[in-house]
Design a protein that fits this description.
This protein is of the alpha+beta class. It has 29 helices and 35 strands. The strands form ten sheets. Strands 24, 25, 26, 29, 30 and 31 form a six-stranded mixed beta sheet that branches. Helix 23 (about 750-765) packs across helix 25 (about 805-820).
């Protein structure tokens, strides 16, 4: 029977599902191996051929590890809370749970038909109450914890309260808000409960504070930085402005140093680790307090007497000619003089339209506004004007920078633009055309530092600042605390209610706090989040929090839930965590470097501090798969003399002869760049009467590599590929396209070759009549050589994740065995095991045809490589008679020239060529050739 892939694949997918073939054991004598994919958000569009790339790679590795004797956990689930489902709900009125469920059904069908070896018994969905119960529980643990810098870990807030009751605030070294109270034990006890709770909020690892956020009025929610592009929401393209709001935040900054140091302990791609290092942004420098000049013509300065800045170049302090604060800085309104108010207000309005990412990225545009106020240089009392500019961010450092235009290019351009002084401070500085950040030379125009070199000057200025109480040495991090609230519906409710304006956790036994029903998925008429619409949704003692958790909440711990997916007493049992420990291999996109991958490490470290998990880092090895790009096709519309598009289309090779305009065309009606004209006429109604200018009777399309998207008509659905060629072909072809980590274009033109390879492999097991037929004869040396070459090659390739080179090697091996007319059971059975990770369906079928129990292939031992079979002990000597090669003869490499001569002359075919004549001379070059002269 010919290779009937549809029947075979359906049969084995049903078998795996019914028999739980890939169910992992929670205890085993085998070593454990945990293979994880970044779980998908189930969008309405379903999968395109680019999505399964990483899943196929991880599945090959998981299947290979089972063959190698490991107890493999390879689960899958859905990151099912999210803005797209909510937007669809707003448009249609349909509950997000309904659309999410439908989308998950589509994803599950598509994933199943690709033949993944997932343990579906452990499936998780972040939007399921039995899952988000534990996301809420982890939030509660964060709320009830603070970070003890002396212990370098999170501890219970009860321990902090105990310290306050016994010793007051003395001796506390915590990561906390800047403005905390100092008090004795007696003073603490004298505070009201409300005052105590308000103070504790300054220490908690999750807390409320007024934050500058990306507010999108059209979507009615706060957006993360990566959801905003050029001042507009990535979804929908709506305007986004910077707005101050009371928001939940998480003190990820407490873990900055540990997050940085941990990068040295994990096997992740270096570019991704560098992205995290830059995001964390550790800087060593000094904080400096610049006294605010007292004036009488505007708001009195009561609580603030200075502006604090952090700088990595405190040695340049005498080169400061202006100070810049963020437009959102809390002192802007206080510092703005009446004369400058209009300019400041206009500038702030302009800044609100830009996201923080845009502000950081735009180094060319110079803009700012003068407040009208001044600070004093703490070392020489010189007046320094205070400006606001959008390149300074309120959340980074202190939201203020000391501008040294002679040493910083951005400050230089700002000073030039606004005609501010530029003071050289090092004798070899050249600042005629640009800033010069040199640390070489000796200091000038720098008071007591004149004549000193960089190291001496830095030490001297820090010592002076510390002596007068105007500054100190300091380590700073660029990373800011993570905003943990979204003003939307489809997310985890925060398990908090408000009483007398203060947040309180709900009782643990009342978890999960379920998402309530609402009449619309929009903010209320008074501007509250959608949860404000819920009727009767109230805590007995106060109002529930109306914001929901962000998308990253549920994905920051999900790998632990897979370890123990149905536990209703804990997020995962101690026994399950002790056995599985961490993820051995994680495959997913690098776009999550400063989002999910950073937040996951943060939550993991927190859970370890509470002795809830074992490992400091969640993911031992990480691989970023590249993107499969779309391969777009174009047709070329003829433009008439008046510049209007006609209904005539010119083939690509002829477009230089005409005036044309390119249009994307559906790649699914193009084969080998040739357009199917009849299908094109049905592609869009206006093309029904299309006419074509052909070349050689065909319409040839143009080609371009772009991102896969519906708008470019270059999306290829895996369902179509599987229907035509089968899942095993799709799996092998996606690997064959190129190295896993690299992006590469999808090109269906090459898939035929992989399909033919599988058919050829199937053919090895069948005779001319397509009857299953294998031999039990002893394998030949050539057959064993081909087999053991592929055993070793695949072993090496899989271990280094070089799946594309394996596919090429399989093709070579099957060609060799075909040439050898191999149908040997011993050879073919081992070939089935080696290929099974890549093409599991065809291999399962052949495995049972070979007489093995159904389902046992996944746990068969991987064949042992024997190098002896690769040792060359024969050589095919060319036999040359009178200068002409007549034949090749296999002769043992162990024979000496005299024995080789005797062996050759005894050969019947050689005697036939000699025609009974004795050669005059025989020349044997050992290991190369035999020459005979007749």
């Amino acid at each position: 029977m010919d290779y009937q892939f549809k029947d075979i694949e359906q049969k084995w997918q049903q078998f795996w599902a019914q028999n739980g073939t890939f169910k992992a054991e929670d205890k085993s004598a085998k070593p454990k191996y945990y293979v994880l994919d970044m779980f998908p958000y189930p969008s309405g569009a379903g999968l395109h051929v680019g999505h399964p790339l990483g899943y196929i790679a991880s599945d090959i590795f998981a299947r290979y590890k089972r063959l190698k004797g490991f107890n493999v956990l390879h689960p899958m689930g859905y990151d099912s809370f999210g803005l797209p489902a909510e937007q669809y709900a707003i448009q249609t009125g349909q509950h997000p749970a309904i659309t999410t469920e439908a989308n998950i059904a589509t994803y599950r069908r598509q994933l199943d038909q690709i033949g993944f070896s997932f343990d579906w018994s452990r499936e998780v969905r972040t939007s399921s109450p039995d899952y988000y119960k534990w996301t809420q529980w982890i939030f509660m643990q964060l709320f009830n914890s603070w970070y003890n810098k002396d212990a370098d870990k999170a501890e219970s807030i009860a321990k902090l309260v105990e310290h306050f009751e016994q010793e007051g605030s003395a001796g506390i070294n915590a990561v906390c808000d800047e403005e905390v109270l100092s008090f004795t034990a007696e003073e603490w006890k004298a505070l009201s409960n409300r005052e105590q709770q308000n103070e504790l909020l300054k220490y908690r690892l999750t807390y409320l504070r007024e934050s500058t956020v990306n507010w999108c009025a059209a979507l009615g929610t706060v957006l993360a930085n990566d959801e905003v592009k050029d001042g507009f929401s990535e979804r929908g393209g709506y305007p986004v402005e910077q707005k101050k709001m009371m928001q939940w935040s998480m003190r990820i900054t407490a873990y900055a140093e540990r997050l940085l140091q941990g990068l040295d302990t994990i096997d992740w791609p270096e570019p991704l680790k560098e992205m995290q290092r830059n995001w964390i942004g550790k800087s060593t420098g000094a904080s400096v307090k610049f006294p605010i000049e007292k004036t009488t013509h505007h708001s009195p300065l009561t609580t603030h007497e200075f502006i604090e800045v952090f700088t990595t170049r405190v040695d340049t302090i005498f080169g400061v000619t202006f100070l810049v604060i963020a437009p959102e800085h809390e002192l802007v309104s206080t510092l703005t003089t009446p004369e400058q108010k209009a300019d400041i207000d206009a500038y702030i309005a302009q800044t609100k339209k830009k996201s923080e990412l845009d502000r950081m990225a735009d180094a060319k545009t110079v803009s700012g506004a003068f407040t009208g106020s001044y600070v004093l240089n703490p070392l020489n009392n010189e007046r320094i004007p205070i400006w606001i500019a959008d390149y300074v961010l309120a959340g980074y450092g202190t939201g203020a920078v000391m501008a040294v235009p002679s040493g910083d290019q951005r400050d230089y351009l700002f000073a030039k633009h606004f005609n501010l002084p530029i003071v050289p401070i090092i004798d070899i500085q050249n600042i005629e055309n640009e800033a010069d950040p040199t640390k070489e030379g000796k200091y000038i125009n720098s008071d007591f530092m004149n004549g000193l070199a960089y190291k001496e000057a830095t030490a001297a200025v820090i010592a002076k600042l510390e002596a007068i109480g105007a500054g100190k040495a300091k380590v700073n991090f660029r990373m800011r605390d993570a905003i943990f609230g979204r003003q939307r519906y489809w997310g985890e409710p925060v398990p908090v209610y408000f009483k007398d304006g203060l947040p309180h956790l709900i009782e643990e036994q009342h978890l999960p706090l379920l998402l309530p029903e609402v009449d619309k998925y929009l903010p209320t008429e008074t501007g509250e989040p959608p949860l404000g619409r819920a009727e009767g949704w109230k805590h007995p003692e106060g109002e529930y929090e109306l914001s929901t958790m962000p998308g990253w909440a549920g994905s920051s711990w999900y790998w632990y839930r897979y370890m123990d997916a149905h536990n209703d007493k804990e997020f995962a049992s101690k026994e399950a965590i002790a056995y599985w420990k961490d993820v051995d291999l994680y495959i997913g996109g690098s776009e999550h470097a400063t989002g999910h991958l950073l937040y996951s490490r943060f939550w993991n470290k927190f859970l370890k501090d509470l002795d809830l998990v074992i490992e400091e880092e969640p993911f031992k090895k990480l691989i970023n798969q590249g993107m499969i790009q779309g391969r777009s096709n174009f047709v070329y519309r003829l433009i008439d003399e008046e510049g209007r598009g006609t209904n005539t289309f010119v083939s690509h090779g002829l477009i230089k002869e005409y005036k044309t305009s390119p249009l994307h065309v559906d790649v699914n009606i193009v084969e080998n760049e040739v357009l199917n004209l009849e299908k094109f006429k049905k592609f869009r109604p206006e093309f029904e009467t299309a006419e074509f200018i052909l070349e050689n009777g065909k319409y040839i399309c143009g080609v371009e590599v772009e991102k896969m998207s519906k708008s470019k008509f270059n999306v290829v659905n895996p369902d179509d590929i599987i229907s035509r060629y089968g899942a095993d072909t799709l799996r092998m072809y996606e690997m064959f396209l190129g190295p896993l980590e690299q992006s590469k274009p999808w090109n269906t033109n090459g898939i035929e070759g992989v399909f033919k390879f599988l058919r050829k492999f199937w053919r090895l097991f069948h005779n001319e009549a397509w009857e299953f037929s294998v031999s039990d004869a002893e394998p030949s040396k050539a057959e064993l050589k081909s087999l053991h070459k592929i055993i070793r090659k695949v072993e090496e390739d899989v271990e280094r994740f070089s799946f594309n080179t394996s596919v090429s090697s399989f093709m070579i091996a099957v060609n060799e065995l075909t040439d050898l007319k191999c149908n040997n059971r011993a050879i073919l059975q081992d070939m089935v095991i080696v290929l099974s990770s890549y093409a599991p369906h065809i291999c399962e079928e052949l495995w049972t045809l070979l007489g093995n129990p159904a389902g046992s292939l996944s746990y068969a031992p991987y064949p042992k490589f024997n190098s002896a079979y690769l040792v060359e002990d024969e050589f095919a000597y060319p036999i040359s008679i009178n200068g002409k090669t007549k034949m090749n003869l296999n002769i043992s490499l162990g024979l000496e020239p005299k024995a080789i001569e005797e062996f050759v002359l005894a050969n019947a075919d050689v005697q036939r060529y000699l025609d009974g004549k004795a050669p005059k001379k025989v020349i044997v070059v050992k290991g190369r050739i035999v020459n005979m002269v007749v």
